[in-house]
Design brief:
By secondary structure, this protein is mainly α. The chain is built from 6 helices and no strands. The chain has one domain. The longest helix has about 30 residues. The protein is globular.
Length: about 170
């Protein structure tokens, strides 16, 4: 599988995001600048993205060991990836609505941004599963993994900014 090195690199970066975010959350839990519910939501979604990207980076390598034809494998993997991504997006949207209903400081802009960031790769993954990108199905799958990693990175940066440094706390 020619994509194996790329998949393993993406998996390593995703694992690093998940690990470092947990470390930040534990070490800086008393110095949060945003409401705790918001920081917790960012942390949870970031870890969800990181673990999803990690899993869907490793699965193709395992599938390739069974000598499955690449095109049907990329299609099936794209469908599974879309289903998991969609379930995560739906769950995150429900959490945002619940925070908003409870009077939390969650603006509508966040909801629209999350919807746009989740719908685009979902549409691409479903199109890939249906054969719209046959010649480039592996590359499209990798691009969606990279986009998920980008979203995890954005949430990681938001987490970093949500916590004050020791010098800022005084």
């Amino acid at each position: 599988m020619p994509e194996a090195d790329t998949l393993l690199t993406i998996a390593q970066v995703a694992a690093a995001f998940a690990g470092f975010s947990g470390l930040i959350a534990v070490l800086a839990q008393e110095r949060v600048r945003v409401p705790r519910a918001i920081a917790a939501a960012w942390l949870r979604r970031m870890v969800e993205f990181a673990l999803m990207v990690l899993a869907f980076s490793i699965i193709p390598i395992v599938v390739a060991r069974f000598d499955v034809s690449p095109l049907p494998a990329w299609r099936l993997l794209s469908l599974a990836f879309a289903l998991v991504w969609g379930a995560g997006a739906w769950s995150a949207a429900r959490r945002v609505r619940a925070m908003r209903a409870a009077g939390g400081p969650v603006g509508r802009g966040l909801g629209w941004m999350m919807t746009a960031a989740n719908c685009a790769p979902l549409a691409v993954l479903v199109a890939n599963a249906l054969g719209a990108f046959d010649a480039q199905s592996g590359a499209v799958y990798l691009a969606c993994l990279a986009f998920g990693l980008l979203l995890a990175g954005v949430l990681f940066l938001r987490l970093l900014r949500a916590f004050t440094l020791e010098e800022d706390a005084g």
